[in-house]
Amino acid sequence: MNLEQEVLTALEVIKTKVNSEKPVNKDDLELLLLASVLEEVNHAGN
Amino acid sequence: MRATNSKTLVLALNDSYETIQIISNISNSANRDQYSILVSNSFHTEYSDFISHSKVETIKLNLSSLIKDNLSNSKHAIKDLLAELNSYNFTSVVNLTYSKFSCYLTSLLELLSKKGPRYDLSCELSIRDQWSQYLFSVFETHAANPFSFSFISSKILKLNRNKNIISPKRANVISIYPSNANSLNASTVSEYIYSFLKQNTNYKIHIIKNRKNSKIVNEILNLDFIDYFSSRIIVKSHAEFNQLIDQYRFIISNDINIISLASFEQTPCIQCFNSIDELTDTNPGCEFSFMIAPKSEIKHIGQHALLELSNALLSNTPIQVLKNNEGCLTLAKYEIYSTHFQHGLPISINLAQSSMNGFTFMKALTTYLMPLCIDSTEFNVQPPTNFESSLSELQHIKTGLELAFELSEHAISSAKSIIDEINSDVPKISHVKKHSQRLSEIDVLIRSLSDKFPNLSVVLDFHLTNITNFDAENILQMAQHRLIASQHLKNSVSAYYELLETLLSRYNKRKNTTAHQDDISN
Q1: DSSP code for B247
Q2: What is this structure's pTM?
């Protein structure tokens, strides 16, 4: 599995949490930060 | 370098004019040592000369370096970044970037004071301070916003402009730095160069060429006009421009990054753009500079208009000279703004008030009223006078203000009902639900009012951003916040209405007096 797929899989867990109105924690926010880095780097690459 | 006790980290991660203006404003402020700016690696590389000249402390961020071969290593890289930023012992962070990355980063930094957008633990965007809320709310409604990014970000950062900025001695050289945007075209620029050099025999012109604008510069240089004065026209590189920027008498450009760099050096500019909305949004704030955009019927800035503004800049009283030419046909085709500093902040002044429409009228009112409503700063703004052609538009705006006033009163009443119900001995949940539902309906109506009355979108969208951003742990606190916010909306809308009424009645009085005098003389 490459990094992007790993991040997407981990994000699914956070999405479920948010949809069921449970608060996210610091680890979740760090993962979301990483996802935003991937998004920006991919955007700049394109 | 480690931060001292009260140092603020500023997130300025856009590779554009915003970051140039943030660095420039902090550099020119009396409290520059209290800030450290996080900039992207690419911005730091491209603007290294400017950054070192600004003497502002910066921290470089290389986003690509956070991406490792697998999730575990990338997470470690993120943790290392956070640990590094937390180790600086900043006391506060201000996010001026509005990207997902900067919002998550703001959330994760272990600092007590945070300004600007960030995500909360429900992953909702949260903005607590009012000027950041204002900046967020005008992203989509810039046509009605009179304040530049430079102004708003200085307000958020609470910068005190250093009044002792000394402007260096200028040479008899002007610089033209065109970009490929269509507000300047090659034939107009070459005609301007010919006329300017003919009129000003002791001046030279530098044309700046880089890899991005080589097409338009080559077109300019290939036109016949240029040959007459070839010895006084010199092509310079971007690097050479950076060295000379503080020596030019003035600069003409349609590239906001270049204008922002020039503004830092206090070099006067003629800033050319396609639309006036772009100009007021991006105005970096430099006294004795002009911002010009064509009105809708023409696409380019003509050479005569450029010459008029150049002559005004070469004389030492540019604004007065231009005002004398207000009726001049050449300039009537354009919107022209200049900058005036008050309370150390740049205010865009509309110099061609003869053609005021609903937007320009409301912008003038907002310039005065919005800072008064947000933080009680009073700017001395010339009230709009020449709005004869937009009287029906102003009547329409009055209707919008009346509707907004009514909605704010309904919201106040619903919020009060919720508070009373919760504070009663036996609160009825059904009543609380009914009034909460009513508040949601009012929000929808305010949103549609903003769409229907774009002239009022600044005040209405700011209110909508404000009511969704607050610290409330229960419905009572939510209702209390709504009560205060709706009261603010009511006060703001009343202030707009009263000012509009006063200006309209003054106009009618003036008109009646003129008609009366005409009757007597007949």
Answers
A1: T
A2: 0.91
